[in-house]
C-alpha cells in the first residue's frame, strides 16, 4: 500500500487536510487505482473503533443490538459512522470519476493545478488546453486513431485541432462533450450544482444522462444540473467563453456558494458563510481577479446586503 494514500487518508479521517491535500486525495480516489487500499483502510478504521466496544454488547435472538450502557452504544455508533463516512467519500469520488473501464490506465499523463495556479498544456495531437486553478486533466500519451479522449475535473479552456475522423471527447463525470475541432470552455468542479459548457468558436455536442445530446455553436452556453442530469439553462451570444483566461471573474445567476468556492480556489483562501439561506442566493456580477479577494468579497457583500469580517485568516460573510 502506498504511503502517500495512507497519509492522505489519515489526514482526511482526522479532518486535518489542507485544501491541496483534500484535492489530491480525491483525485487519487477518482483514478481508481487505489480502491483496494482505501477499502482496507476503511476496514482497519472500523475494526479499530469496534474493538473498543465492551464485550457486554451483543445481538439478541431478535437481531437487536443490546448494550447495557449508553457508552457502549455511543462507541459502536462512532465506529459505524466512521466507516460510513469513508464509504460515502469513496462512493462520491467514484460517482464523479469519468465513465470509463476500471483498471490500470496505460500511458496516461496527468496534469494538476493547485489553488491560484494556472497552466497551459499542449496535447499529443497539437490541441491546446488552459487549465484553471485546482483542476486536473488526464490524457493518453498518444491518442488512438479513432478518437481522442481526455478526463477533466475542474475547469479548462480547449482549443482543439480539427480531425474529422478522430472526434475529441472530454469526460467530466457522467457528462461528455464531443467536438471535431473548436474552442470552448468547460467548468465542472466537484461540489458545483451545474456543469457549464461555453463555446467561443466551432460546434460541440454535450451528452448527459438519458437526454438527447445538445448541440452548441459559437457564442452559446449550456448549464447541466448534475442532480437531475437535465438542462439548467441555455444562453446564446455570450460575450466570452473563458473570461478567467483574461483575469476576469464573471458570474451570471450563480449561487453565492458556488462563487465563494471559486474565490477560494482563485485566491487560495478560506471563506465562510454563516447563514445557510445565503448560500443559495443567485448573484450576477463581474470583477478583475487582480482587485484581490477582499475587494471581491466586498462587492458580493454589497450585492447580498451582508457584512465581511476577517478573523485568524478566515473571511466570514454574515
Automatic annotation (TrEMBL):
Keywords: Membrane, Transmembrane, Transmembrane helix. Residues 249-312 form the Protein FecR C-terminal domain. It holds the Pfam family FecR_C. This is FecR domain-containing protein. The chain crosses the membrane at residues 79-97. Residues 112-204 form the FecR protein domain. The lineage of its organism: Bacteria, Pseudomonadati, Bacteroidota, Chitinophagia, Chitinophagales. It comes from the Bacteria.
